[in-house]
């Protein structure tokens, strides 16, 4: 038995831990940029809490709030240029996966000479970046602790990932109170993203005893608390357990990679703007059934972890049915006729290598058609 683990994250978890942000980031410098979106972090009060804490610790900052869903490499270049102009010493990402991925990439690539697109196309890194601090306001992406940034590649019309140890956060603050104002649909979609991370990690070809323990615990936490969090966003225990499940799933899949559900979901997002968590939710039960031939025992274990007395795929369908998200790709905005393009872009994903069952073009087509 041989495996390698890389878990260098500094993680602070707990209610109201965001209040101590200013003191914790003093070690990284006295000037930063906050990367976030236009609305949610402001309406939820998360941004105000961050600003207050930074001011108390005399950390100067400025705010970049232009991040939207499906961010591209040009967005990262914009943040890199602004950060350099202002002479910041570290970058804070606040929000969902999009804001965190932009902040992470801008920090990791801060001192590189080429545009972000070059590194998406596998150009090697030459220089160190600056510290990235991840503060999620959703419970789903795990981006605050992973080594990769998923960005839209305009030249290829697809979403691709840059993965590098220099993207590792120096500090992640997981404060469940920042998720209390998440709308039901986003709670459901982000939660299904986290559950897909955990399940695909659990069945990954790269899984090992430690990642199995992490992914298994994440499956259990999310399975027991997602519906509760959707039904009552102010349920403190459910929100805390979802935040914990999400970060544990992130620790697991950052080591093992994911699988075919994620490989297909990225082109669905790029071509049809289907939210990542929604795409994963729709794909997951069909992917489980596809993979079952090669890892049936793992799915039986997952079924137990989910707490049900039926097949894992059936439990996932039951879970999705109870939540306010689309149940099919067509409901989510998919348009027939571009299946071959999706297949082509799916095979650009490195995640297929970790899927427990080999995947052919026909298999991807069959999965897509069954999800319509």
From TrEMBL:
Pfam families: ADH_Fe_C (PF25137), Fe-ADH (PF00465). Residues 8-176 form the Alcohol dehydrogenase iron-type/glycerol dehydrogenase GldA domain. It comes from the Bacteria. Keywords: Oxidoreductase. Residues 187-371 form the Fe-containing alcohol dehydrogenase-like C-terminal domain. GO terms for molecular function: alcohol dehydrogenase (NAD+) activity; metal ion binding. CDD domains: Fe-ADH (cd08551). This is 1,3-propanediol dehydrogenase.
